[in-house]
Design goal:
Layout: E1 16-18, H1 27-35, E2 40-42, E3 46-47, H2 48-52, H3 57-61, E4 73-78, H4 82-95, E5 99-103, H5 109-112, H6 124-137, E6 142-147, H7 157-166, E7 171-175, H8 189-198, E8 204-207, H9 213-223, E9 227-230, H10 232-236, H11 240-245, H12 255-270, H13 274-278, H14 282-286, H15 292-299, H16 305-316
Parallel strand pairs: 1-2, 1-9, 2-4, 3-4, 4-5, 5-6, 6-7, 7-8, 8-9
């Protein structure tokens, strides 16, 4: 059995983690969430093999680019070849990441077909080999993100957890939905609690279905987890981390100001592509607000940054600022 790294201060009880979300948790969004109360952030998943290839470096560079203001930050990698995963993890360490996370729960078919992501849930031997190879290669903490089984009620994942613990995994992020459920449906809090009961000394982070302070409290109480990871809940309500912490709302930073700040960071990061890439955030930010459907239809074709900013200002009734 490989030893765990000494847990850093950010692996602490009560910490709030921003979950890795493919297509969303890029640098502009992560910085925004750190400002709004997230304690730890994680990149969207990146192909470890791609990190090791010079010809793929340009394609993957945006995924592993981060600002010091984001710290502490982890890089989530995926793949199915232990040696290549270790190489990718080493590159992440050299780039300055605080920890590296192995994706073992992505249900997307094109990922699963390669033996990566959720396919590792059915291959504990390979999963543990990946963690072991990475542990031998890097000095930063190594974590894994799994799900509560392949189908609801399947408890075979407990054997996987045992293998990961034997391999020295430093923390475990557990999405409380089985692979077959994808991102929807009820969360299996009991499934997470079983991990807590069987592995009391493992740093356990619960993930899934937390969209309010009430959801947070229920998750902590029913699972006994050390910390909570929030993904789509932060897209639906960017203030969720502050609300859970009981922090007051800022008089000068309402949702409109936050959306504009995020949008400008997007433009700085992506350049001319930023406007089009940012549009996917607006359905999340505006859902349920009066006039949101008409607003989303209107902005869905906008490519000019000034025009999009104008529409955002009108929707949130923000006063134009002369620069």
């Amino acid at each position: 059995m490989q030893g765990q790294s000494e847990n850093p201060s950010f692996f602490r009880r009560g910490a709030l983690f921003l979950a890795p979300l493919a297509g969303y948790t890029d640098m502009p969004f992560r910085i925004t969430m750190r400002e709004l109360g997230a304690d730890v952030v994680v990149t969207e998943m990146v192909n470890a093999f791609g990190l090791t290839l010079e010809r793929e470096r340009k394609k993957t560079s945006k995924y592993v680019q981060f600002d010091p203001a984001e710290r502490p930050i982890g890089a989530q990698i995926f793949g199915a070849i232990p040696e290549k995963m270790a190489e990718g993890a080493k590159i992440c360490q050299e780039l300055g990441f605080d920890f590296v996370d192995v994706n073992m729960g992505c249900p997307v078919r094109k990922v699963v077909r390669t033996g990566a992501g959720a396919a590792l849930m059915k291959n504990p031997s390979l999963a543990s080999s990946i963690v072991s190879h990475i542990k031998k290669t890097v000095s930063i903490p190594v974590t894994a993100k799994i799900r509560t089984g392949w189908t609801r009620g399947d408890r075979g994942y407990l054997d996987l957890v045992e293998r990961l613990v034997e391999s020295g995994v430093d923390a475990l992020f557990v999405h409380g939905r089985p692979v077959s459920q994808g991102m929807t449906g009820p969360v299996d809090l009991e499934g997470i609690r079983l991990i807590r009961k069987r592995f009391p000394h493992l740093f356990l982070v619960a993930n899934g279905g937390v969209e309010s302070p009430e959801d947070y409290r229920k998750t902590v109480e029913e699972t006994g987890c050390d910390a909570v990871m929030i993904g789509r809940g932060a897209l639906k309500d960017p203030f969720i981390f502050r609300k859970i912490k009981g922090l007051p709302e800022s008089k000068n930073s309402g949702i409109g100001e936050i959306v504009l700040r995020h949008f400008r960071r997007h433009l700085d990061f992506y350049g001319e592509r930023g406007t089009v890439l940012f549009r996917k955030f607006l359905p999340w930010y505006t859902k349920g607000l009066p006039g949101s459907s008409a607003f989303r239809r209107k902005v869905n074709e906008i490519t000019d940054p000034a025009e999009l900013e104008s529409e955002i200002r009108q929707f949130y009734r923000l006063i134009p600022v002369n620069n």
